[in-house]
Design brief:
Blueprint lengths: L1 H56 L2 H7 L2 H7 L6 H25 L2 H45 L4 H23 L5 H25 L1 H12 L9 E4 L2 E8 L3 E5 L4 E5 L2 H4 L3 E2 L7
Antiparallel strand pairs: 1-2, 1-5, 2-3, 3-4
Helix pairs in contact: 1-4, 4-5, 5-6
Length: 281
């Protein structure tokens, strides 16, 4: 019985001795990792503070206002401080870098590899945001130019045209930014092409139906040129008189009391009577 107790005691002591030895062996690595984290935290605080002061010195907020980024944030109901966001991005980026160094010192390679993958994504996201911000600014400049031009020309459809160009450009910029961030946009682009195609077909049909009468008048005017001319006296249902003018869309008849404008297609689709000129004896 005593021998068994002694054996158990030896096992416990050996386990504690092994644990203590492992701890003593790992202690320098743990201390080194903690030192690295401490140094990293100090450097991250200093550099993020420098970035914040530098952005304020160059009046980065004014740059964003000129680029209308603040308007975009207001539309999205996002009350954020861009300078604070950028400085915090620098801070956490450096913290992650030093965490990788600390985990490598301890020997946690799997943890450092996963954090490394996360860090690799951050530059892509930053570049994507820069692309989107620049694209948004350019889109607004184009929008302002088109608005000014269409307003000066008095174009009634200027607002619609401006909106179409603006949102199309924003779509291109958004897709480009998403691709830069590593997001697959094939589904978005395929659906967009389908939607645009549908809109174009519907617009084409609508325009064709709306322009049917116009095209009919133009063709009728062309086809009736050989039969009718200015100076002829014609009778069309209850309208009779002399043709005083012919254009691509209509003819003008002088009834003696008034001028009647008739669409050209009626010259083809209805019965017209022509009065022969009286022969002089």
């Amino acid at each position: 019985m005593n021998n068994e107790i002694n054996d158990y005691g030896n096992i416990v002591m050996n386990s504690l001795q092994t644990l203590l030895n492992d701890l003593m062996g790992a202690l320098p690595k743990i201390i080194g990792a903690l030192v690295v984290l401490l140094v990293g935290w100090i450097i991250a605080k200093i550099l993020s503070g420098i970035v914040s002061k530098l952005l304020k010195a160059v009046k980065f907020d004014d740059v964003l206002k000129k680029a209308k980024i603040d308007e975009m944030l207001d539309k999205l109901n996002m009350d954020i401080d861009p300078i604070k966001i950028l400085s915090k991005t620098v801070y956490y980026f450096l913290i992650l870098v030093f965490i990788i160094a600390a985990t490598d010192i301890i020997g946690w390679t799997m943890v450092s590899q996963e954090i490394g993958k996360l860090i690799a994504i951050i530059p892509k996201i930053v570049v994507a945001l820069v692309i989107f911000g620049i694209g948004y600014s350019i889109a607004n400049i184009i929008k302002d130019i088109l608005t000014a031009v269409t307003s000066s020309l008095g174009a009634s459809s200027g607002k619609v045209l401006t909106s179409v160009v603006y949102y199309f450009f924003m779509f291109i910029i958004t897709v480009t930014a998403l691709k830069q961030a590593g997001i697959d946009t094939s589904l978005i682009t395929d659906n967009f092409i389908l939607i645009i195609g549908t809109i174009l077909i519907a617009s084409g049909l609508a325009y064709g139906l709306a322009a049917r009468d116009v095209m009919g008048n133009m063709l009728s005017s062309f086809m009736s040129k050989s039969k009718y001319e200015v100076g002829q006296y014609i009778i069309l249902n209850d309208v009779s008189g002399e043709i005083t003018e012919m254009d691509k869309m209509s003819i003008t008849i002088d009834t003696g009391t008034e001028l009647v404008v008739i669409p050209s297609k009626r010259l083809i689709t209805e019965t017209i009577r022509l009065r022969k000129p009286v022969k002089e004896e």
